[in-house]
Amino acid sequence: MSDNSLKNLPGGFKGMSQDMGSDQTAFKGVQWGKVMMWIFLLSDTFIFSCFLISYMKGRTSTVVDWPNTSEVFSLHVNGVAVPLLLIAIMTFVLITSSGTMALAVKYGYEKNRKMCGWLILATAIGGLTFVGMQAFEWSKLIHEGVRPWENPFGAKQFGSFFFMITGFHGTHVSIGVIFLFIYSRKVFRGDFDKGKRGFFTSMKSDYVAIEILGLYWHFVDLVWVFIFAFFYLW
Amino acid sequence: MDEIENKETVASTHKIGIYLWIWGLLFVLSFFSYMVDWFQFQGLLRWTLILIFMFLKAGLIMAFFMHLFWERYALVNVLLWPMTAIACFIGLMVAEAKYTVFTRLLYFFIGG
Amino acid sequence: MSDEYNQKNTPIKAQSSEITSSSSGSSKDIDYVRPAELPEQDLYHGHSFITKWIFCQDAKVIGVQYFLTAVFTGIVGLVLSWLMRLQLGFPELVPFITAEHYYQFVTMHGMIMVVYFLTALFLGGFGNYLIPLMVGARDMVFPYVNMVSFWMFFIAVCVLMASFFVPGGPTGAGWTLYPPQAILPGTPGSNMGIILMLVSLSLFVIGFTMGGLNYLITILQARTRGMTLMRMPLTIWGIFTATALAMLAFPALLVSCIMMTLDKMLGTSFFMPTIVQAGEVLSYGGGSPVLFQHLFWFFGHPEVYIVALPAFGIVSDLISVHARKNIFGYRMMVWAIVGIGALSFFVWAHHMYVSGMNPWFGFFFATTTLIIAVPTALKVYNWIITLFRANIRMNTVMLFCLGFIVTFVNGGITGIFLGNVAVDIPLSDTYFVIAHFHMVMGIAPLMVIMGAVYHWFPLVTGRMLSEKLGKWHFWFTFLGAYSIYFPMHYLGFIGVPRRYFEMYDSPYVTSAIGMNEFITVAALIVGFSQLIFIYNIVVSLSIGKPAGKNPWKANSLEWLTPEVPPAHGNWGEKLPVIHRWPYDFNVPGAKEDYITQTTPPSEVISAEVEKT
């Protein structure tokens, strides 16, 4: 967030060396919780990178043919197989929810309680839709005989990596949805305006929490961009 | 999560237009990357398009939705430099995967 | 609801980082330090016994909790190593040690010592205790998360220990847990044991992530006024870089744990190739065992530095304080720590020269491995130059520091041997490797831990440890450890393979039998001599000499708290203000031989201090 006193600091690499050389804080004007979420996301990036690297290694080095994803994930509409239709819809749903979240953060900082709350709720519903569609996709594949240990289409690793990676991502989405619902309630209740103390941590609430939650939610979307590209389009 | 108290009374936020623009761009880019599969581009063209759209989307989300574009360089650099380790890991694993499939074909199919 | 410090509602204000020159008219004031950017931290004060000592949010208590838990697991690891040595020195002397049990001991000893003992002790123990004190913070930035971090670690240790009692016992796959053998029948503990190990590691990673976020953000965002990054003690630099490594390396471990758990429980084939077992083809197929090794060592090599870097940092501080001299080349030391940390992500496959990976990787990884030796060697030179013509106090702490330098140089040089592919291939999987890594990441960090305990015990408890017992403890440990690991180099050269339960009638037996017996006796003596240490700690807790304030005449902040041992919130009414680095010892022109970090320049106007 831009703060007036921050504007007097030099930007770019000069600003960076000055920030790093200064006392007290290395990231000027960035709240602790926000730094925490960023570094956590960096760590989480490494987790997803390791998953995707393993997938790449597994897929490239198998001598059995990899299933054709655009056929496996196709959906029949009026008897015509549309490739990757469900996945495309899921992508759009997740991007939509990402956009509402970005707006929620904006309205949060403007202390627009109503807008912020409704947008978070919309984000949560978008996330829930995504998880629901993923559950549908899983059940469809399981119905077709895809299992983590085998599948009728080709290499064994296809099912393993599919369920593991989308499952891990889905877990992230689900956790995000839970927090979105909790936070929308908090926003409507006005916790962030009053600085109500947290139930566990007994620390004061603040609208920066919405941005932190937003970072997490955008990250989930970000990971989906990579999964979409590497798992479905490859 | 929020141990620091933020005493700013009115935080200046970005105009709503920029978010809507990025939002729209993301939809367009997603549509394009879906079209890559729709038209069944193959080979190098497919890979190039997939990667371009992927990195554009990822970049837009990080830069604007996650506000990295407006953050100071100290944070941006701390977040982006570790990716070199991942890049190295990816590069080496590509080489490793090729070697694995080479030995498998050599010993299990040609030689065996 | 919590009590709070009286807090002034100062807005977050970022200002120019140039401390001495300020735009307002006070630029003449040499004691000027720019005002606080952040308001005072809001702290939760425990009231009951449970919130004060068990589910405590005070980083110092959490540090001690981590320390004690880690030491407990370390003692388990030590006992396991005795059992292994008994079998190796005197085969079949103890009927209880069967081949299966031997492999379980090997595995658990390795995993406990590397992850649950050294990592937890350095980062969880020393990190929690020292970071807020040394950077001048009231506490960690997220005290609640910090508490949860410890209890996750505690649960991880409980799960690990539980694997001793499940049917089949703990896993016996070696600490690297290589599949496919780790999860196939025939390996001890391939059912419950390996599952519990993987679960425990995952819990450890989750718990550590919570703690690690705290350490990083406290160092980056919660320093006191005047505390620039380049005025932090090297201890903090070591812990900081190690934590950053951990945050980026543990994900690879978590991923490999998840994938192996799925291989075991669901029958996926991530790491499992086609396997014929007792004439029957298993359902596995097409997986890549070498992928696990890459993932594991992508974690495993940074892990080596997660253990080593805090040791480097701490030993630099101990040497400087007890040699009464500033650390030579402070900035070089900092950059060496950071450089080693960064490079450690590019060297992992030097553990895999004989694994059957792409043979061209040898060039890349041998080169990066030898490059990483450069900053490491710089550090060794700097420690030695710091000692050169210094006013060395030959106390227990200094002895342990010297012991560290010797063992570290020894282990480091053998590391350069092993980093070269051509040398590594005959030596890998022999006792030479055992000797190398025990010297460099076993004994050397242990020397630092012990020195650090002698150094900071007065701070934690307010009483000194006995010097006399300490010297006995040092000589037993140092000479004993050398007699254990030095002969192992020779065993390696003659080709005695590691991980062998017994040599039976192989030609190694005749030439190695005496040496193996000697090593075992030495190991038993060293192990038992740690009782001196424990006795020293227990007795000194109640009858040790009262330490008073700053017994070592050190400069760094942790000794400058209003109360000793420091109370919750560390600094009483006002946070300290920092004017210099912590290494102003024996400054020409100063009245005393040390100038604390909080001493303003106007008080030591005649001293020729370093400009920091």
Brief summary of the model shown:
The complex is a heterotrimer of chains A (234), B (112) and C (612). Chain A is built from eight helices and two strands, in the order αααββααααα. Chain A has helices spanning 12-21, 32-61, 69-72, 85-109, 113-143, 157-189, 191-194, 208-233, and strands at 75-77, 80-82.
List the helices and strands and how they pair.
The complex is a heterotrimer of chains A (234), B (112) and C (612).
Chain A: H1 12-21, H2 32-61, H3 69-72, E1 75-77, E2 80-82, H4 85-109, H5 113-143, H6 157-189, H7 191-194, H8 208-233
Antiparallel strand pairs in A: 1-2
Helix pairs in contact in A: 2-6, 2-8, 4-5, 4-8, 5-6, 6-8
Chain B: H1 16-38, H2 43-65, H3 73-80, H4 83-110
Helix pairs in contact in B: 1-2
Chain C: H1 49-54, H2 59-89, H3 99-135, H4 143-162, H5 192-221, H6 234-265, E1 276-277, E2 280-281, H7 289-322, H8 330-343, H9 361-387, H10 396-419, H11 421-427, H12 431-461, H13 467-493, H14 508-543
Helix pairs in contact in C: 2-3, 2-4, 2-14, 3-5, 3-6, 3-7, 3-12, 4-5, 5-6, 6-7, 6-8, 7-9, 7-10, 7-12, 8-9, 9-10, 10-12, 10-13, 12-13, 13-14
Protein described:
The complex is a heterotrimer of chains A (234), B (112) and C (612). With 234 residues, chain A is mainly alpha-helical. Chain A has helices at 12-21, 32-61, 69-72, 85-109, 113-143, 157-189, 191-194, 208-233, and strands at residues 75-77, 80-82. Chain A has a single domain (13-233), classed as Up-down Bundle (Four Helix Bundle (Hemerythrin (Met), subunit A)), CATH 1.20.120.80. Chain A has 8 helices and 2 strands; from the N terminus they run H-H-H-E-E-H-H-H-H-H. In chain A, strand 1 (75-77) and strand 2 form a beta hairpin. The longest helix of chain A has 33 residues, at 157-189. Chain B folds into 2 domains: 1-71; 82-112. Chain B has helices spanning 16-38, 43-65, 73-80, 83-110. Chain B contains 4 helices and no strands. Chain C has 4 domains: 50-232, no CATH class; 285-393; 394-545, no CATH class; 548-612, no CATH class. Chain C has a two-stranded antiparallel ribbon with strand order 1-2. Classes of the chains: A mainly alpha (234), B mainly alpha (112), C mainly alpha (612). Chains in contact: A-B, A-C, B-C. The interface between B and C is medium-sized, with 17 and 25 residues.
Can you tag this structure with a few keywords?
heterotrimer; A: 234 residues; mainly alpha; Four Helix Bundle (Hemerythrin (Met), subunit A); two-stranded antiparallel sheet; globular; B: 112 residues; 2 domains; 4 helices; 73% helix; 0% strand; flat; disordered N terminus
